[in-house]
Amino acid sequence: MYVCLCLGVTDTQIEAAVDNGAHTMKQLTSELKIGSQCGKCCQCSKSILNNKLIKIAEAEPCVA
């Protein structure tokens, strides 16, 4: 699904960026330029970022 229509950025690209270490909106903006035009994609991008980070955290083994 397209998240940023201005730059043609998809949810898959955002998730791949998170997998490659972009764990903040600032890092996503730096890597994908997301939110650098009209800004309407920021809320959806943040939601995708947070959901992906939760999935990563749940997949990591607990260290006790």
**Could you give a short account of the major beta sheet?**
2 strands, antiparallel
Helical stretch tally: 3
Give the CATH superfamily.
BFD-like [2Fe-2S]-binding domain
Named CATH architecture: Orthogonal Bundle
Please tell me the total number of domains.
1
Q: Ends: how far apart? A: 38 Å
- Taken from the alpha-carbon principal axes, the silhouette is elongated
- How large, in whole angstroms, is the Cα Rg? 12 Å
Can you put this structure into words, describing what you see?
- Strands 1-2 form a two-stranded antiparallel ribbon.
- The protein has a single domain, classed as Arc Repressor Mutant, subunit A (Orthogonal Bundle), CATH 1.10.10.1100.
- It is mainly alpha-helical.
- It is 55% helix and 8% strand.
- It is built from three helices and two strands.
